[in-house]
Each structure stands twice: as structure tokens, then as C-alpha cells.
TrEMBL record:
One of its GO terms (molecular function) is lytic endotransglycosylase activity. This is Endolytic murein transglycosylase. It comes from Ruania alba. Residues 1-22, 309-329 are annotated as: Disordered. The record marks 254 as: Important for catalytic activity. Its EC number is 4.2.2.29. Signal peptide: none annotated.
């Protein structure tokens, strides 16, 4: 009996021990797999959360914000002025309006901004709005322009300083003498030294938003700033800026068709290099400016012989200053004139075409061609 049922055989005990060992290993492996899975989930959550923190500022103002917006019921009370800067995004506008308590949250304004197809037309400047408005209403009234309290002043290319002063006085509802006094102060204290204290040519042709509390001095300084910004963007050296504006103002006055600017700029350079033999520009636009008349007025022989500093038919070289506010296109033409030996041009006022020539003989033939063409048209 002892031999049959006593101690368990060695092989049976070994098998059970091996089975328990395998089970223990499987349990340990499952624990390791579970821990690895939890670590992976945590890492993924951290990655997604960190990515959202980085991406969300880039989307601000251009996406539908997901959280529940806080909004005022409207219609709003009182009145407040807010200033929207040039190029402001929807998110930036939202911050300005939230600070002024026009809207209850940035979220509400951004969602309303994105939902209104006219919102992109909101103009920079000073807007007068009620406080505690519904965001949708704030976007709508800003987009239709009814809240904009700024005065808009548009200065066309080729306008002279005297014309600009008249326009500023009209828009600010002040006497022109007040604008002229402001111009004297700006010329003395604000203009770059290279301008020689003369405002002509430094009042950039553009459209300006004038805030309700702006003075004539503020407006004129803004025009000078815009000219400087334009010249800075074109990398024009400070010492060359007056000459560039003089040449560009002549191009502006003489050109009828935009595609001829670079060739007129070339003629100016070649005339200054003495291609005509006398170093004179011979530009009627400068003569007219020196006489205080428009280029459209008749330049009689008597007027052409009148010796002013701007009479480039009599005096070699550039005139002492610009003759108007040039456009960006004319400045670009001066900085990159056409290539060649062109020395003369004559314009057909009927067609707007200019005929260019390298020699005086060719120039006279061009003048005859235009005269005959116009005579035949009249006949």
C-alpha cells in the first residue's frame, strides 16, 4: 500500500510546478501589457492636448469656436468709441470690443463674425457702438459702416500741396489757413531734413481715416509717415529721397498711360546725363508748376520764357522740389527706368499715346505726326 499510494511521483509534481510557473508568467505579461496600454493612452492624451494649445491661437478668429458662447441679449445701452486698427483680424476685433464691454465674450463675437459674409468689409477706424450689444448685432452694424465715425480723406495722385490743404480743411471743417499753419509746423519740425522744409511731394496720395479728435497736424503728419513708409519699403536711401520724389512727380504729371512711366523715367535720366546737349529736362509740367497754373492751361511762348526755378526749359538739372504727390507706380518707374537711349517724347492728348525718340530729328518727326493726325481728325 505504501508503495502504491504514498509519496506522489516526481514527474507529476514537476508537471504541476511547471504549469503554475506558466500561469504566473502569463499573469505578469498581462499586467505588463495593461501598464503599457495605460502609458500609451496617457502619452496620446498629452500629445493631443499639447497640440491643441499650439494650434488654437492660429485658428482664433477664423473658426467656429466650440465652447458655448456667452452673449448679451441686447440691444445695448449707452455709447462707446472703439478703434479698429488696419488689418485687424476677427479675434483682434473681439478683444477690443470685449474690453469696451460692447460684447460679452470673444467667443460670441468670433462666431458672429464668421457667420456674417459681410464681416470682412468692416473698415478700420473709430466705431461708435452701444455697450452690452448682442454680438450678431455688433458685427452687422460695423459691417454696414453705420458705426464708423471717422472722416475719410482721399488724396489723388498728382495733387499739389495747396489742393491737399483745401481738401483737409473741408473734411475737418476748419479754415484753410489753419491747415497751412499746421503745414508750416510739420515742415519745420517733422519732415526729414532732405525735404528742405518743403511739404510738396511728401504728402502721400492715399485714403486716410481721420479720427474725430484728430487735428490738421495729425492728418498731415500721417501723410508724411505714409510717404516715409513707402520709401522705406522700397529701400530708397534717405539721402536720395528728395530727388526720387522730384523725378516721380514729373513722371506722374507727364505720363498719360501707365505702361509709359518707365520710358518717361528713362528720358529724365538721359536728359540729366546730357543726351540733349544742354542738360535740361524741358518738361512743361515743371514750367506750369513754377507759374502756379495747371498743365492743362495754355503755355504760351511768353509763359515758357518766364524764368522761375521750375522752368526746366531754361534751367539745367532737376527743379528745386517735387511738383505734386506721385503715385507708387511713378516712384517704382524712377527706381527702375527702362533701358535705352531715348531722349525725347511728345504726347498725343487725344489718344493718350506718347511717341519716344532718341534724336531731335526723330522727335520733330513725331511732333509732326501728332499734329497731322489731330488736324486730320478735326477736318
Amino acid at each position: 500500500m505504501t508503495d502504491l499510494f504514498g509519496d506522489e511521483p516526481q514527474s507529476s509534481r514537476a508537471r504541476r510546478s511547471s504549469a503554475r510557473l506558466r500561469q504566473a508568467k502569463r499573469r505578469a505579461q498581462r499586467r505588463r501589457n495593461f501598464i503599457s496600454f495605460v502609458v500609451m493612452l496617457v502619452a496620446l492624451a498629452l500629445l493631443v492636448g499639447g497640440g491643441w494649445v499650439l494650434v488654437r491661437p492660429l485658428l482664433d478668429g477664423n473658426e467656429q469656436v466650440s465652447e458655448e458662447p456667452t452673449d448679451y441679449p441686447g440691444p445695448g445701452t449707452g455709447e462707446v468709441q472703439v478703434v479698429i486698427e488696419e488689418g485687424a483680424s476677427g479675434g483682434e476685433m473681439a478683444s477690443v470690443l470685449l474690453e469696451a464691454d460692447v460684447v460679452a465674450s470673444r467667443t460670441a463675437f468670433i462666431n458672429a463674425f464668421n457667420a456674417n459674409p459681410d464681416a470682412a468689409g468692416i473698415q478700420p477706424g473709430t466705431h461708435v457702438l452701444a455697450q452690452q450689444m448682442r454680438a450678431e448685432d455688433a458685427v452687422a452694424v460695423m459691417a454696414d459702416g453705420s458705426t464708423l465715425s471717422d472722416t475719410r480723406i482721399t488724396i489723388p495722385e498728382q495733387w499739389r500741396a495747396t489742393q491737399i490743404y483745401d481738401r483737409v480743411a473741408q473734411r475737418l471743417d476748419v479754415d484753410v489757413s489753419e491747415v497751412e499753419e499746421a503745414a508750416d509746423a510739420v515742415a519745420a519740425d517733422y519732415l526729414p531734413d532732405v525735404a528742405g522744409g518743403e511739404m510738396e511731394g511728401w504728402l502721400a496720395a492715399s485714403t486716410y481715416n481721420v479720427h474725430p479728435d484728430d487735428t490738421a497736424t495729425d492728418v498731415l503728419e500721417g501723410m508724411v509717415d505714409r510717404t516715409i513708409e513707402l520709401l522705406d519699403s522700397m529701400d530708397v536711401p534717405a539721402a536720395d529721397r528728395q530727388d526720387v520724389l522730384i523725378k516721380a512727380s514729373i513722371v506722374e504729371a507727364e505720363v498719360i498711360r501707365d505702361d509709359e512711366r518707365a520710358r518717361v523715367a528713362l528720358v529724365i535720366e538721359n536728359r540729366l546725363d546730357n543726351c540733349s546737349g544742354d542738360g535740361r529736362l524741358g518738361m512743361d509740367s515743371t514750367v506750369a508748376y513754377g507759374l502756379g497754373i495747371t498743365l492743362g492751361e495754355a503755355l504760351t511762348q511768353e509763359r515758357l520764357r518766364e524764368d522761375t526755378p521750375y522752368n526746366t526749359r531754361l534751367n539745367p538739372g532737376l527743379p528745386p522740389g517735387p511738383i505734386s504727390s506721385p503715385s507708387q507706380g511713378s516712384i517704382e518707374a524712377v527706381l527702375a527706368p527702362a533701358a535705352g537711349d531715348l531722349c525725347y517724347f511728345v504726347s498725343d492728348l487725344e489718344t493718350g499715346e506718347s511717341l519716344f525718340a532718341a534724336t531731335l530729328e526723330e522727335h520733330n518727326e513725331n511732333r509732326e505726326t501728332i499734329n497731322n493726325r489731330n488736324s486730320n481728325d478735326e477736318g
